[in-house]
Amino acid sequence: MTQTPAFNLPKVELHVHLDGSIKPETILYYGKKRGVSLPANTVAELQDIIGMDKPLSLPGFLAKFEIYMPAIAGSREAVKRIAYEFVETKAKEGVVYVEVRYSPHLLANSKVKPIPWNQAEGDLTPDEVVSLVNQGLQEGERDFKVKVRSILCCMRHMPEWSLEVVELCKKYRQQTVVGIDLAGDETISGSSLFEGHVKAYEEAVRSGIHRTVHAGEVGSANMVKEAVDTLRTERVGHGYHTLEDEALYSRLRRENMHFEVCPWSSYLTGAWKLGTDHAVIRFKNDQANYSLNTDDPLIFKSTLNTDYQMTKQDMGFTEEEFKRLNLNSARSSFLPENEKKELVDQLQKAYGLAP
Known about the structure:
alpha/beta; eight-stranded parallel β-sheet; 17 helices; 47% helix; nucleotide metabolism; EC 3.5.4.4
């Protein structure tokens, strides 16, 4: 895709994974430094192995993380550095506000790991991971003038982690953390949610922690309904299959539910099939509330411009629609109301719109 900016004005991004946004150079550096075997020695080779050029299944995509995460997870220095470098990358993409998400447990090296990780640097707990990420993000915010907040992920396949995740959200809510997410393979729990996730989200509601959930990406509309009615989510990650249930979609539009759309990601994970209309076209035509996001740019070999180009060139998106969706993204952010208003005002001024 061409690198000419499709929308050369300030942008907001709400759905991007920290562990899916690491610079290949950083992975190679820590692989060598920590003695972690990687299947490549150069950036180009690593990108070819990690990156995707054609669609895979969602589990196939998720397996990519196992290739390179052992070089990063468990290293205090690496965890802080990837957070700092993430902010630098977003500054270059013209992002003025971003919410980045990650699983504290998958960046730690505790003994409950589902796969073996490097243990040489001593135990790094999920709690310390959050502290280190916060430090990296705050230093990046200072140096690159991008406002950045974080969302902590529960993982569908590890419900025993979820209560700890919500407690970390509460502990660090004044230090970048603004919300909780449920991520991972949507089909893994079958037709119902694990109790650990439900209890964590109940605690999030009680504690005033903002909530988003990956749902309706490859799963059915019922997964979205479950996220809304059981987990009381305030935003839906992806949500494409909501359109299979017109009553649900109409209800969520009335309630101004925000859909975190990742167009290029949806193509490569097989969540959207070429030859069919992408859900985001319906969202646009209905003037629904949604954002455009990269999801995992390392694996998708993309930048935020990739998603803007895709929607502009292939789906008829205009600059006016880009302005509208970014203002909706700002209004649907997990910032406190006063900071949200400042962000909206900042965008309106940049877009030449009256407040």
